[in-house]
Amino acid sequence: MSPDWNSITKEGGGTAGPRSKGSNATLLIIGVAALFAVALLVTLYYGNEQAKDIRSQIASNQELIVKRLDDADGRLAKLQSQLTVTQERVGLTQRDLERAQAMATQLKAEQEKNVRRLSTEIAEKASTEEVKNLKETTQAEIGSVSEHVGAVKSEVGSVKSEVGTVKDDLKGTRDDLERTKRDLASMNLLLDEQGKLIATNAEGLETLRMKGEREYVEFDISKRDKAKAVGDIRLELRKADAKKQNADIRIFVNDTQVDKGKVYINEPVHFRQGRQALDYEIVVNQVMKDQIKGYLSTPKNRALAASGPKF
User: Fold this and answer.
1) Which residue(s) pair with 199 in the sheet?
2) What's the pLDDT tens digit per position in 108-120?
3) Are residues 171 and 247 in the same domain?
4) Cα–Cα distance between 93 and 168 in angstroms, integer?
5) Does 53 share its domain with 172?
6) SS3 258
7) Which domain holds residue 104?
8) In the chain, which ranges are continuous DSSP H helix?
9) Highest mean pLDDT range out of 65-79, 176-190, 234-248?
């Protein structure tokens, strides 16, 4: 008689062991996955908080840089105004001094002339009475001239004192201006001849961008490039002299082209564009072998000009 295999399996409980092990493994995997998910959520939370702190620090640094730049702009405008006024005052007081000195020289010459004339008249007069009257007249005239000379000398002294004061003010203003220029240099900026800020590299350009007053487009042009688009104009490198740090460029605006020779680094090329005469500015920051780098600066919210540029 053959055995009943189904009965043996049920009674002996042979399948119960594997099922129990499989359930435990599933629970273990679920537990590990849950722990991993919790760890991931914690990591994401702290990472997000750190990102917030970094963004907040960057925003704070940007505000600080813009404030420093605005302060420098205000200080610079004030110093330039003071410099102009003191230079005008120096010119004015210098002219007063020259006029007073000329007057003193003229009075001295007149005094010497009168003395010689009176001496001649005395020699020609014979009578004692005439000599006496002539002496009295001479002394009166000499006294009047001396008083006039004394007044002129006093005026000359006053003018000299004022000139000295103005020169001191001028020196102080120039010293303040030099300090401001050094502050700007620390931010990779400098002043052009018109008193406008120029960026000397990418860091300085980023500082100007944060001011938000103008738009800036960087360019990197090689001699192989032909009329490369930069903003709403095109530029072409004609020649690059890395040793002398200058370049010859060709500027295309609408249907107009203009050649500018010997453009030195950090010396802006200005031109007026369109009917509104918008101020465009090209600055070359680097001159290398057959290559230049720099930027184009244009006003914000400009309309695309339709007429040719004015250099």
Assistant:
1) 189
2) 787 677 767 766 7
3) no
4) 13
5) yes
6) strand
7) 20-187
8) 5-12, 16-124, 128-186, 202-211
9) 234-248
Angstrom CA distances, 226 to 221, 230, 236, 237, stand at: 9, 12, 6, 8
Identify the burial level of 232 via C-beta atoms within 10 angstroms of its C-beta, where 0-12 means exposed, 13-18 middle and 19 or more buried.
Answer: middle
Q: What gap in Å lies between CA 60 and CA 64, rounded to an integer?
A: 6
* Contact residues for 187 (Cβ-Cβ < 8 A; gap 6+): 65, 68, 69, 72, 203, 204, 207
- pLDDT tens, position by position, 154-188: 766 776 676 777 777 777 777 777 777 787 888 89
What b-and-e string marks burial along 249-271, b requiring 16 or more CB atoms within 10 Å of the CB? bbbbbbeeeeebeebebbebbeb
CA distance 139 to 126: 19
Q: Which helix (H) or strand (E) holds 196?
A: none
Choosing from 153, 187, 221, the residue where a domain stops is 187
Would the pTM count as exceeding 0.85?
A: no
Residue by residue, DSSP assigns 96-157 as HHHHHHHHHHHHHHHHHHHHHHHHHHHHH--SHHHHHHHHHHHHHHHHHHHHHHHHHHHHHH
Average pLDDT over residues 58-80: 70
Whether the predicted pLDDT of 6 surpasses 60: no
The span from the CA of 24 to the CA of 268, in Å, is 77
φ, ψ at 9 (rounded to 5°): -60, -45
Could you tell me if 35 and 132 lie in one domain?
yes
Same domain for 212 and 100: no
Is residue 292 within 8 A of residue 299, CB to CB? The reply is no
End-to-end Cα spacing for the chain: 118
Confidence band, pLDDT 50/70/90 cuts, at residue 24: confident
What is residue 231's DSSP assignment?
T
For the segment 86-113, the average pLDDT, to the nearest whole number, is 71
Token couple for 252: 């295309």
Residue 218 pLDDT greater than 70, yes or no: yes
